[in-house]
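Annotated sample (chain length 308).
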Amino acid sequence: MAEQTLPHSSFDPVRLKAYLMDLQERIVTALEKADGHAFRRDAWTRPEGGGGLSALVEEGALFERGGVNFSHVMGPGLPPSASAHRPELAGRRFEAMGVSLVLHPRNPYVPTVHMNIRFFAAFAEDAAPVWWFGGGMDLTPYYGFEEDARHFHQTCQAALAPFGADYYPRFKRWCDEYFFLKHRQEPRGVGGIFFDDFNELPLPQAEALWRSVGDHFLAAYLPIVERRRSLPYGERERDFQAYRRGRYVEFNLVYDRGTLFGLQSGGRTESILMSLPPIVRWRYDWHPEAGSPEAALLEGFINGQDWL
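Output written by the structure step:
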């Protein structure tokens, strides 16, 4: 992938920030309506530069815990997680902004979901700035419904279709490979789309693709919520949900580049770890009963299949 450089004046941090803050507010407003509870909004600043706005709900009617974060930070040197794939940028002054969300519903038949879009720029005294976009969304069900997985992936495909037919299959494969717990040889969920270090299009087109991903989130997720939120459940389903949430915690703390970037860059710990679920369980060498819905999820549903 060719490195894209351009004068600072060619991209507008003010415009990008305004879009991200508007996206956060649109999503939070829609989620508040779905849950029936207001999100707590918590503005924060970062001593090294920048700040953000965290929006959080806990013990809601729909969401046991959910957060939608906006951040805009800058610093004197890219942390290792941001320069791991671009070692030539190590030590450069940086500016980063994005919206990241994770929603953990109470009902085990409603899947957990994650979405993130972010923008980075790295600066040097003797070189033009380097920029790139990243983001995506992925779905983590506890009980598998093909209709839901197909809808989520179809919406992801629709978000990328205007920019070329190859982006969805490429970003879908990237998502399957990224959200994979290597130490367990196990996918986190049914995937979605994921991209990072994205600068292969001219900036206006790259930004439009990035915005399209953010703008399609509510259409990807809320119809699934409405189909499943009223399904009855009991302790068995809640117990399995807590067990599978343990995998979510393992991924976020061991592999997730966003979590690592936030912690390595001196970010706000409360906001970074807002993605973790409130109730989690681990068991030693446990396997679900053969032929059960729980076994069906693990043995055949979360396997990186083609949902289209």
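Annotation: The first helix runs from residue 13 to 35.
Annotation: The first strand starts at residue 40 and ends at 45.
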